[in-house]
Design brief:
Layout lengths: L7 E9 L5 E10 L4 E5 L6 H9 L9 E4 L2 E2 L10 E4 L11 H11 L4 H14 L15 H14 L4 E5 L7 H18 L2 E6 L2 H7 L2 E6 L2 E6 L1 H6 L4 H6 L4 E3 L15 E3 L4 E4 L6 E10 L4 E6 L6 E5 L10 E6 L9
Parallel strand pairs: 3-8, 3-9, 6-7, 7-8
Antiparallel strand pairs: 1-2, 1-4, 4-5, 9-10, 11-12, 13-17, 14-15, 14-17, 15-16
């Protein structure tokens, strides 16, 4: 992480609205300078409320504190926190061109005209919208507008960059490309970033750490690898990727506590010689995905299991298969 970037610390930040709705239980969170932290969870879990508290758009309940480095910013409004904010809605100025929108914050900061022109060009190139510089906002697609919003937020080099599902409007290919570009940009500029999403792929691609939230609480915090390989509980395991469960009654011969189901990821299962695996089953569906085959298998458990196989063998609906999972690939969760 960068020693020059702004660290963000939240202490006992809760949020109760005037109608009595508790959107966020008391939360403690420390974001290192230059770190990208992703708040991940389903709709209504409190992640956007938490982001708005960091921004200064919402005040935490009485005991809550927000710190940027050694500065207590709890009472400061958004315009005094020097944060960049990218919303799901674009919040662009319709009476300005693309270039004018990107330049707006720079003009407010009284940068020189050559500096503004150079920074705007840099941002337009990064977002692949150079050719749109002189277009009006109402001439842009939704994806193009979000690119402009991202460029405008990043252009001012904020102390903290806050992003609330900024890629939602983009198609799948564009989202994938922008994930890489945003990640590269944030790391090169060492901007402290907090990113809200419900998309696990975005979280895994962008986050130095992922904060998984549920019902106004932080459920687990860790690196993408830690969250995926060592989920704290069933909620995290189910929300981050796909998991299979085999009831404990079917685990004879497998070294596992009998009070727990066996839980494993689809890619950790291997198809082996018939009757030589830990489970046998019948293929219910087979989907060819180019680099792999996804199999839906009935092995007698209450729910079908999913297998991701990279083997070249043709496996079709109705085939009987045997499945083995290496002992150290079972997930230890309740």
């Amino acid at each position: 992480m960068s020693s020059n970037a702004t660290a963000v610390t939240l202490h006992k930040c809760a949020k109760t609205f005037e109608d009595g709705t508790r959107a966020l239980d008391p939360v403690d969170l420390a974001v290192e300078g230059g770190e990208t932290v992703v708040l991940l969870g389903p709709s209504g879990c409190g992640k956007t409320t938490l982001l708005r508290i960091v921004a200064g758009l919402e005040n935490p309940d009485k005991s809550g504190e927000v710190w940027f480095n050694n500065d207590d910013v709890t009472e400061l409004p958004i315009e005094k926190r020097n944060v960049g904010m990218v919303f799901q809605s674009y919040a662009l100025f319709p009476n300005m061109t693309v270039a004018e929108n990107v330049a707006y914050g720079l003009r407010v900061r009284k940068m020189s005209k050559p500096e503004i022109e150079a920074r705007v060009l840099e941002m337009l190139k990064m977002m692949r919208i150079t050719e749109l510089a002189n277009r009006n906002i109402d001439q842009l697609s939704g994806g193009q507008r979000q690119r402009v919003a991202l460029a405008r937020a990043i252009a001012v080099r904020p102390r903290v960059l806050l992003l609330d599902e900024p890629l939602t409007a983009l198609d799948a290919l564009l989202r994938e490309r922008l994930r890489v570009e945003i990640d590269s940009l944030l790391r090169s500029l060492a901007i402290t970033s907090i990113y809200v999403t419900h998309d696990q792929a975005e979280a895994m691609a962008l986050g130095d750490r992922i904060v998984v939230m549920s019902k106004g609480k932080i459920v687990q915090t860790g690196s993408p690898r830690e969250i995926y390989n060592n989920p704290k509980n069933s909620f995290v395991a189910d929300f981050i990727g796909t998991v299979n469960r085999i009831p404990s009654a079917m685990t004879d011969g497998i070294d596992t506590p009998k009070e727990h189901d066996l839980v494993f990821r689809p890619e950790d299962a291997e198809i082996v010689e018939k009757s030589s695996g830990q489970f046998n089953g019948k293929v219910v569906n087979s989907f060819f995905l180019g680099d792999r085959i996804r199999l839906i298998v009935d092995c007698g458990a209450p729910e079908y299991i999913t297998i991701e196989s990279f083997q070249r063998d043709v496996i079709e609906e109705g085939d009987e298969i045997s499945i083995r999972v290496h002992q150290d690939r079972f997930l230890e969760i309740n």
